[in-house]
Fold each of these.
Amino acid sequence: MVGIFITFEGGDGSGKSTQAGLLEQWLTDAGHTVVRTREPGGTAVGDELREIVLHSRGHIDPRAEALIFAASRAQHVAEKVRPALQRGEIVIMDRYLDSSVAYQGFARGLGADDVRSISLWATEDLLPDLTVLLDVDEDTGRDRLHDARTRYDRLEAEERDFHARVRAAYLEIAATEPSRFLVLDASLPVDDLAAAVRTRAAALFA
Ligand code: TYD
């Protein structure tokens, strides 16, 4: 595979989308072909699954929830991500398998190893070259979301403890794979974060 695969992770309200957008702009300006996408979603099937998993009114069993995220991911990788990487493009993604490990594996209590295995099976073992973790404490994330939202999705609506578990999970995941992760304090100014992301991304091209 000749392309480069970069993912952004973090709790709700961590500023992932802003940073993904700034990196996309910087790489595009430098002449690279960039595919920017997100999970859940990214394909027509994925968008339908996104609607179910985030906005379905009825109860979704945690295992069913984990499999819906994995199904969206399988479709996304097969239809969009792997072909782009094979063309030598850069893929920037808002959330990927570490979201499942943090939210479903740790915060929902399904088990990190099982949830990771399901995603690796779904994607035929596609791991990012770089994952930027924007570490945000649950209260700051909440406040930012509150300013930006009129309604919360099913995961965002979970209680404070759930989001505290998500944060701790992310830090634990990052610690087990330090060479893949860049961990940044999401409370830093946007420009400082963007500069740190660019420095690390540039190293991938060296
Ligand atoms: P997202 O659209 O990234 O929301 P936001 O941009 O507001 O952070 O993700 C929606 C929710 O889905 C988010 O609360 C995290 C959750 N999620 C999981 O629980 N597991 C997953 O595998 C993914 C991709 C997302």
Note: The chain has one domain: 4-203.
Amino acid sequence: MIKLKGIAAASGISIGPAYKIGKEEFIIPKEAIREKDIPVQIQLFEEALIKTRREIIELQKRIGFEMGQEEAQIFDAHLLVLEDRMLIEDVISRLKKEHLKVAYIFSEVLKKYISVFSKIEDEYLKERTADINDVGKRILRNLLGKKRTGLSELKDKVIIVAHDISPSDTAVMHKQKVSAFITDIGGKTSHTAIMAKSLEIPAVVGIEEATAKISSGDILIVDGNNGLVIVGPDEKTLEEYHREKEKLKGATQKFLLVKDLPATTLDGKKVEISANIEFPDEVPAVKMHGGQGIGLYRTEFFYMNRKDLPTEEEHYQAYKYVAEEMKPYSVIIRTLDLGGDKFLSQFAIPHEMQPFLGWRAIRFCLARPDIFKLQLRAILRASVHGNLKLMYPMISGIEELEQANKILAEAKEELKKQGTPFNNNIEVGAMIEVPSAAMTTDILAREANFFSIGTNDLIQYSLAVDRVNEKVAYLYEPAHPAVLRLIKNIIDSAHKAGVKVGMCGEMAGEPGFALMLLGLGLDEFSMPPQVIPEIKYIIRSVNFKQAEEIAHKAMQLSTGTEVENFTKSKLAEILK
Ligand code: PEP
Ligand code: MG
């Protein structure tokens, strides 16, 4: 039995046989052609491009229908590769010069492109290597008249093991045939990971040696909750995981029973439970899991996978849809949080040594009021269609908040002049995710109607731990006493100023921590839709007084691990 550690990309547990798909390599002979065959080869190339285009559009339609428009949009990047004049002209000019078969020439040009792109420092462009590779393989397949075997023809339910999985591979996976997947490379926010979540199958990525250590037919346990893969588990481990899986299933059903009830403690204290989303078409999942609103709509994904910027109308339509669908519940739209680990090629951001401490989020927006105001105008316009609120990311002090609100006031003025309706009293919030903001919430309260604690960043900034660096991940402790003291200070001083506090960092959706946060007086908990029923169940099972005592005791402990173990044991007692 061996254990392989990777990155947890999509939650859940799956047990079953491995099905390894190799890297798709073609052997392409270097065959010479005569001068007079050149037009035929060009025609072959054009036909392959047309056929590939048709395949991608077909696939895009199917994905749009089965998984949603946002997932389908991923293939826009593939279509752009097909229209790349430089790539096409490169192939044709080399064909005319070198007199070799087009399949060979194309494969050489493709290799050159991939090598150039993979060396680029810009993360976004680097990610495009996968798109070029994916489309390139399709074109080659069509040039050689070959078919991609495997994924769409699977007979039994398997766990896919691959070096990497492209979005179009994920697209042909059916839940009935693929119970999980694992890959050597990839990160939590890759397109493939996004697709896995939509398919609701567990996935572990970035294992490095998955394909080297696993053979087809090996029995695997994929633990998508902990980013763990167990190869050839012994009887005891198998039994444990089968039990865990059953427990998860039983627990999920139990949690789902309360999903539409209010999040009220046994002694009557009511809090709000809302959802974090990245795309508008996650709204049905929010409703299905009993979300009473959206506590964080991360709008930066709107700017991804495209060469141009979204127009005001595009922003407006998306926000209007979410506002209308979620009515009467509130929807908090977070303005563009670019930078850190989220790069967008449209903005040509210079390379920075410390991107998380650099030109990010509100800093970027205040430097580019044109881009910022366009988004604010769209949010304001959409505000008449439901209960919309807006919030700014990464506020570090009152001046930033004042400047942002000034641009908001200008946007309002413009709309007024145009006679465009909007909600003049739209609530404005600040994310509290920088320690300087956490220590000055009393001051920030003058300019904000509500706060939302972004623990994902607050933890990295207060403990000096890069949130995406696996080497220092052991130091990333949500319940470190320093973090708890900051959270307590935020909640207490905000309440003193009469301002409500939510939390949209991942910590709010962690069962043990949620219990403690309830006791610390948090008003709103925002989390991925799938965890809502469980957190609601916990809140409905406890007395507020009891939660306060737990929080009080947790605050006396010395380390994050002690707090984590303590809150977990208290939760187990309550749910017993
Ligand atoms: C956070 O920092 O906790 C947060 C919710 O924002 P993001 O994860 O998008 O940085
Ligand atoms: Mg953040």
Note: Residues 393, 433, 454, 456-457 surround magnesium ion (ligand 2) (CB under 6 Å).
